[in-house]
Amino acid sequence: MAQGTPFGPRIHALAVYLKGMQLFSYQRLSAALSDLFGLAVSEGALMNMFKRTKTAFEAKRAEALAALRGARFVSCDETGARIEGVNAFHWVFCCKQVVVHGADLSRGAQVVRDVSGGHRPAVWTSDRYSAQQGHADRQQTCLAHLDRDAGLS
Hints:
By secondary structure, the protein is α/β, with parallel strands linked by helices. The chain has helices spanning 9-20, 26-37, 43-68, 109-116, 143-149; strands at 73-83, 86-94, 99-104, 123-126, 138-141. Strands 3-2-1-4-5 form a five-stranded mixed beta sheet. A hairpin with a 2-residue loop joins strand 1 and strand 2. 16% of the residues are buried.
């Protein structure tokens, strides 16, 4: 994985973890690697690290999408996120077997259709946002969203 780079697999793994799970910006991640290890890692070098690790995740993502596309019950939500300084959305799709995360510049129903790949589960659980409606035979509104919308929490 670390061919053509002065950074070994552990630095790659840490960078992927901090970017993907702790949502570090490129600037913050570069500063953290400098502060923690004395490494001068440019934002471009970080992007190259992430590009090199992409293939390691593709097979598992395909497996997760296959499980999601076969599920009877699917839950979904999206929230605002920043991607390279642009407003975007972090999507989460859940079923009993897997959780699939994705990022998109759109909050539209097409994101759901793309991830679902034509699959219609028996039940879809989500908030009441229009892009989240009509993707299954039955719709269940998330109770936490109902509680929030009713002003109970």
